[in-house]
């Protein structure tokens, strides 16, 4: 996914000289194609993420359209105060890119895991939160984020994530993408955990159910029109994310649905409220967190969903 980000950014920068990239001393070779024609617009801010956020805010005030890029916990929590005051409060059009989100850097432990970033970013006024499921979704959404001209958090994967689409889907910022229509049960997934959502839907289908599968790439603002429709059509809504089960995408859906009359039951699946360590791969970390089809099916069975 990070390769797709670099490629799309390079192509967009060819046509828009106001685009800037600040990166915190990672991905140096990744951005070589951008440097070949716009070296002055690819700025290595060093391992100084707080300063990088403030630099980007200042450049936005001068009319530029800056991106800041580094590993997710370092581009969100390490510099949260600067994002809050310099970017969100000032309502500056900075796109904050968190690469290697969730459990992508599983083997590096809690310092490199990002379980809290969606919660942090969606709590900020003026901030938009976008979590593409694969490189195809990233490619479709990036130009739309630039057009927003507003603070954005763009939560992406690391590398070699499987494609969940066969080609470029027709995506619109703020609107869900229904990958498979269904009834009674809706599976709402955000970000790179979509392959697990697809596997879960396959398992539910084998049990005689017809679940709807939705890519909820925009976490803030939520697609309230879809949720209003879902309230009338589904008995159960399952949310899936590679983020703490508290405060993230599932919480946003639960908060909205709970405020409506006669809404469906919401079942949230994500990282449990504990640190995940002593793992060697993303798959191993997901298993330790209970993010597997058997674990989810067991919980749904206990709750009388299946």
Strand content: 15-25%
Q: Give the averaged pLDDT, no decimals.
A: 96
The main sheet orders its strands as: 2-1-3-4-6-5-10
Please provide the ordered H/E string of secondary-structure elements: HEHEHEHHEHEHEEEHEEHEHEHH
Low-confidence stretches: none
Radius of gyration: 19 Å
Structure annotation, total helices: 12
**What structural category arises from helix and sheet content?**
alpha/beta
Helicity range = 25-40%
Envelope shape:
globular
What is the total tally of β strands?
Answer: 12
Tell me the span between the first and last alpha carbons.
34 Å
Largest sheet: 7 strands, mixed
Please, could you describe this protein's structure?
It is a single chain. With 306 residues, the chain is an alpha/beta fold. It has twelve helices and twelve strands. It has helices at residues 2-15, 32-38, 49-61, 72-76, 80-88, 117-122, 135-148, 194-206, 224-233, 249-258, 282-288, 293-302; strands at 19-23, 42-44, 65-71, 95-99, 128-130, 152-155, 177-180, 184-189, 212-215, 218-220, 234-244, 265-271. Helix 7 (135-148) links the parallel strand 5 and strand 6 (152-155). The longest helix is centred in the N-terminal third of the chain and has 14 residues, at 2-15. The protein starts with a helix and ends with a helix. The relative contact order is 0.12.
